[in-house]
Amino acid sequence: MNDKRFTFKMLGVFLMESMNINPKEVRRTFWHVVGGLVLLILAFRLPEILAVLLK
């Protein structure tokens, strides 16, 4: 249970993980951020979209 990488992450020090990043992880993280933004936009625009569709 003495995982130093986990401890560094919890302290906000990402140096150890930043040295081990590969392109697949960067793409995955990027698409998660994009997906989250799209969901937020849809959540705020949902009343307008429903009003147009149910007119």
Work out the helix count: 3
Helix content: over 70%
Judged by helices, strands and strand pairing, the structural class is mainly alpha
Give unreliable regions as ranges. Answer: none
Question: How is the main sheet built?
Answer: none
Strand segment tally? 0
Identify the overall geometry.
rod-shaped
Specify Rg, calculated over alpha carbons. 19 Å
Beta-strand level of the residues, as a percent range?
under 5%
**Tally of discrete structural domains:** 1
Mean pLDDT equals: 77
Order of secondary-structure elements: HHH
Distance between the termini: 58 Å
Transmembrane segments: 29-54
Keywords: Membrane, Transmembrane, Transmembrane helix
Task: Please outline the helices and strands.
Blueprint: H1 4-10, H2 15-18, H3 23-53
What does this structure look like?
The structure is a single chain. The chain is mainly alpha-helical. The chain has 3 helices and no strands. The chain has one domain. It starts with a helix and ends with a helix. The radius of gyration is 19 Å and the shape is rod-shaped. The longest helix has 31 residues. Helix content is 76%, strand content 0%. The mean pLDDT is 77. Keywords: Membrane, Transmembrane, Transmembrane helix.
Compact description:
This protein has 55 residues and is mainly alpha-helical.
Features:
membrane; mainly alpha; transmembrane; transmembrane helix; rod-shaped
